[in-house]
């Protein structure tokens, strides 16, 4: 808990959706932030006599929620948005890998800034990046991504990815864009040892994250899982994203993706996978039994025509599920708060129709669900005393939302709501819709310059 001498911020007069176990909500309530923790939350006015109050915020007309938690992304893709817009996953990868294989540290840093900035402006307080492209001689890509997150003040998980199955081995990426088995394992271990923080209020964590069944060897999956468990960190990869992937696994391994993952040690409560679109009842039962998490990326799945993940069935079975932006070359908006709405709407196109998801389930996916998937459910994802002070104030009294009586319904079903304030670890990173810690106009210029530079290099190659 925060020490009694901690400086306090008092937020009052707002609707509050705590997203705690009981979905407690207050039509008008308060939050007290003490240092980097939530000290108290409740109905009405904040307690009288609080000491060391350095700021009081009258949040009338706002909804307070936990900060959004992004569980899957590829930051580097920010500088290749708008390309291959009419492709399925495999054709999209074939079209873009030759360009991605030419990224360097400068490009990766700029792309991370752009990706993080867009999410932070839209209420994300915990981000993750699955970075798996490490061209030879490209510099310290992992370090540049972590530096961008630290400068912005966002809580961050780097899923240190890897690929060792290139074109010569029947994979999709160019030969010079992959690592050797041993090189990938050694670099991943070094990244964990250098950057991972296991403490309660950690701002940077690292996961072990070989890319996908069709871009890594079986041995990299097996040894990657062993490495993660030896180091005490989480595991992440792509799984069951497309019918082509399922066919690939059956042809190459004689089994579907879930059985293959289980055979390599890749099911468990320390694992989460992106997409999981093509899952049968047995697959969902295996994920539920092992508490393997899922990063649901509805916009990307629609953009690449991958299909509709069975999220309602996963939730009913007890599978941990969070939301993901996915790479911005397959979700050009780069925002997570729009995924609340898209998750609800797209899942209603499935077999459960209007009973698939409701507004509060969607909000839970984007907050506490994501926290559980990242292994941080006891630290973030809900507004409760003792948890970390990651809080968002959404402005709900403008033209876009004022006529919707229920603020949670307004947030999920309505237009993207403006963020008046976003706090991470008790520090404000967004004020009145603008980033408070970095120059977003400078980031826009930098990302445009690096996108143009990458396009020139790729064209010359």
Question: Could you explain how this protein is built, in words?
Answer:
With 461 residues, this protein is α/β, with parallel strands linked by helices. It folds into two domains: 8-65 and 382-435, Urease, subunit C, domain 1, CATH 2.30.40.10; 68-374, Metal-dependent hydrolases (TIM Barrel). It contains 14 helices and 17 strands. Strands 1, 2, 3, 4, 5, 14, 15, 16 and 17 form a nine-stranded mixed β-sheet that branches. A four-stranded parallel β-sheet has the order 6-7-8-9. A four-stranded parallel β-sheet has the order 10-11-12-13. Helix 12 packs across helix 13. The longest helix is centred in the last third of the chain and has 21 residues, at 440-460. The radius of gyration is 21 Å and the shape is globular. The termini are far apart.
What secondary-structure arrangement, pairings included, does this model have?
Layout: E1 8-17, E2 25-34, E3 37-43, E4 53-58, E5 62-66, E6 68-69, H1 89-100, H2 105-121, E7 124-131, H3 141-152, E8 155-162, H4 181-195, E9 204-210, H5 218-231, E10 235-239, H6 243-253, H7 257-263, E11 271-275, H8 281-290, E12 293-296, H9 298-303, H10 311-317, E13 321-323, H11 337-347, H12 359-373, E14 391-395, H13 407-413, E15 419-424, E16 427-431, E17 434-435, H14 440-460
Parallel strand pairs: 1-4, 1-5, 6-7, 7-8, 8-9, 10-11, 11-12, 12-13
Antiparallel strand pairs: 1-2, 2-3, 5-14, 14-15, 15-16, 16-17
Keywords:
461 residues; alpha/beta; Urease, subunit C, domain 1; TIM Barrel; 2 domains; nine-stranded mixed beta sheet; four-stranded parallel beta sheet; 17 strands; globular; metal ion binding; zinc; Amidohydro-rel
């Amino acid at each position: 808990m925060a020490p009694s001498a901690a400086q306090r911020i008092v937020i009052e007069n707002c609707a509050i959706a705590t997203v705690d176990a009981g979905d407690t909500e207050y039509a008008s309530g308060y939050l007290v932030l003490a240092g980097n923790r939530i000290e108290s939350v409740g109905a009405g006015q904040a307690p009288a006599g609080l000491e060391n109050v350095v700021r009081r915020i009258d949040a009338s007309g706002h909804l307070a929620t936990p900060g959004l938690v992004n569980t899957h992304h590829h930051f580097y893709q920010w500088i290749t948005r708008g390309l291959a817009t009419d492709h399925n996953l495999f054709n999209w990868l074939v079209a873009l890998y030759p360009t991605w294989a030419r990224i360097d540290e400068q490009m990766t840093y700029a792309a991370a800034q752009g990706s993080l900035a867009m999410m932070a402006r839209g209420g994300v307080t915990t981000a993750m990046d699955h970075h798996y492209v490490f061209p030879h001689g490209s510099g310290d890509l992992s370090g540049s991504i972590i530096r961008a997150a630290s400068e912005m003040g966002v809580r961050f998980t780097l899923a240190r990815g890897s690929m060792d199955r290139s074109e010569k081995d029947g994979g999709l990426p160019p030969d010079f864009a992959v690592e050797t088995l041993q090189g990938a394992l050694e670099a991943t271990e070094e990244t964990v040892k250098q950057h991972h923080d296991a403490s309660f209020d950690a701002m940077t964590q690292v996961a072990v994250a070989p890319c996908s069944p069709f871009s890594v060897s079986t041995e990299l999956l097996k040894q990657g899982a062993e490495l993660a468990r030896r180091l005490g960190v989480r595991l992440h990869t792509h799984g069951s994203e497309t019918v082509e992937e399922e066919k690939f696994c059956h042809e190459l391994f004689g089994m579907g993706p879930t059985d293959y993952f289980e055979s390599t040690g890749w099911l468990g409560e320390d694992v989460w996978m992106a997409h999981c679109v093509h899952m049968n009842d047995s697959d969902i039962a295996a994920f539920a039994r092992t508490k393997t998490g899922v990063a649901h990326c509805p916009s990307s799945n629609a953009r690449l025509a991958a299909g509709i993940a069975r999220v309602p069935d996963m939730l009913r079975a007890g599978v941990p599920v969070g939301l993901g932006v996915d790479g911005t070359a397959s979700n050009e908006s780069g925002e997570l708060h729009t995924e609340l709405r898209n998750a609800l709407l797209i899942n209603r196109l499935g077999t459960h129709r209007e009973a698939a998801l409701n507004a509060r389930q969607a909000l839970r996916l984007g907050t506490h669900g994501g926290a559980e998937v990242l292994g941080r459910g006891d630290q973030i994802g809900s507004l409760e005393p003792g948890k970390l002070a990651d809080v968002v104030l959404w402005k709900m009294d403008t033209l876009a939302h004022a006529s919707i009586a229920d603020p949670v319904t307004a947030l999920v079903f309505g237009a993207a709501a403006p963020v008046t304030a976003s706090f991470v670890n008790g520090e404000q990173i967004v004020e009145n819709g603008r980033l408070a810690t970095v120059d977003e106009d400078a980031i826009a210029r930098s990302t445009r310059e690096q996108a143009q530079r990458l396009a020139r290099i790729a064209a010359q190659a």
